[in-house]
Amino acid sequence: MAEGFWGLVVIIGPIVLIAALAFAMLRNKQTKREFERTEAATRRMHEEQAAQDRTTTP
Description:
single chain, 2 helices, 0% strand, mainly alpha, 88% helix
């Protein structure tokens, strides 16, 4: 009985893992507009932090 269970785990486990990874990759795509908006916000935040550091650093 235990051998049959492990046989299923060895066969079905990787299939489930690949399916989960494929699902995550397909759901995590950004459009070009979203990517550019995120990059611009990150750049702006870094510039604000740098400006703040310049004013507070002795």
